[in-house]
Amino acid sequence: MKRLFLILILYTNILASDKLIIAHRGASAYLPEHTLESKVLAYAMGVPYIEQDLAMSKDNHLIVIHDLYLDTISDVAERFPHRKRKDGHYYVIDFTLKELKTLNMNEVFILDKKGLKQAKYPERFPLNRAHFTINTFEEEIELIQGLNKTLGKDVGLYVETKRPWFHKQEGKDISKATLEVLKKYGYTNKNSKVYFQSFDYPDLVRVKKELLPQLNMDIKLVALIGLNDWEETFEYKDGKWQNYDFSYLLNAKNYGEISKIADALGPTYTLLFDAEKLKDKKVVANDFVKNAHQYKMKVHPYTIRADALPDYVKDVNELFEAVLFKAGADGVFTDFPDLGIKFLEQKGSK
Ligand code: CA
Q1: What is the pairing mode between strands 298-299 and 240-243?
Q2: If we measure between CA atoms, which residue out of 108, 131, 91, 139 comes closest to residue 33?
């Protein structure tokens, strides 16, 4: 009986740990996002996947950074005051790798009315402390693969090409460049520990139908789903660039077609719940996950932040529970990888 009980515990542990905790921009709640330091910490926290957002430098290096620009996360404005564009932003794509390497990276900040830097998340790593650098995609892959070797693990990459449509307007093919680096480091097929994600669905279709076959690769693809008013993605249609309509990816009638392209969907987690009931702070799953699973697509929503919880949960564990078990998602992005891992461990041992 005791033995049976142990097997049961083991089994439920395995069931619970089928869920993926994805380190969103590293352990970004604790160290400036996308720095190698934050990736090492995420690794040590025991996640199966660590995220890389990518943009391209002027000299075509893939840079691990969340935004296309540098102004809310580095000292670029002090170092290169004359290099901003008309819209006030300092774009990664306007700098060479050598220039980017001279920047001091920071926790994300916003400028207040007096033009002073204020932390976006006040409880996170202090501004202007220590010295962090920007890194290339290859440097980060080598770090993770090196740790995989020394620690005997197999932690994966969860890569996002940022705004491929923008890079195209600037004459660069970020998706092709990303796939070439992945191939160089041995990530070539669906068993490789990598997911390739994008909000640019038209570009993801091109990745699947043109680029992967050209490179003799076939890796797991994730269609990210945003809200239309974020204006996250533009597509060239009827002779002009226009805001992409995400309703295509939300309509389950299209899932047969979409599942030929995507292995997983990445929605904002709110999309997994009944929107009307959320208004009364009632968390009830809608059919999102069920519809995706019907076509064998996984669902990996973003992003759980213990310091920015929605009003319909009382703590972070309730949100992990709602997303991973009530709604049934297969994984989730979080700035707090340790809390995600701890949640799953507790869930498994109950
Ligand atoms: Ca991302």
Answers
A1: unpaired
A2: 108
CA of 67 to the centre of ligand 1 (A): 9
Sequence-distant (6+) residues with CB within 8 A of 226 are 199, 232, 233, 246, 268
pTM for this structure? Answer: 0.94
300 CA → ligand 1 middle, Å: 12
**Could you report how far apart the first and last alpha carbons of the chain are, in Å?**
18
Distance CA 34, CA 24 (A): 9
Model confidence at 17, pLDDT cuts 50, 70, 90, reads: low
Task: Return d(Cα 44, Cα 49) in angstroms, integer.
Answer: 12
Tokens 């076959």 label which residue? 213
Say how many Å lie between the CA of residue 309 and the centre of ligand 1.
Answer: 19
By annotation, the residues acting in catalysis are 24, 66
CA atoms of 279 and 275, how far apart (whole Å): 7
What digits encode the pLDDT tens for the residues 293-341? Answer: 999 999 999 999 999 999 999 999 999 999 999 999 999 999 999 999 9
Confidence check: pLDDT of 347 > 60: yes
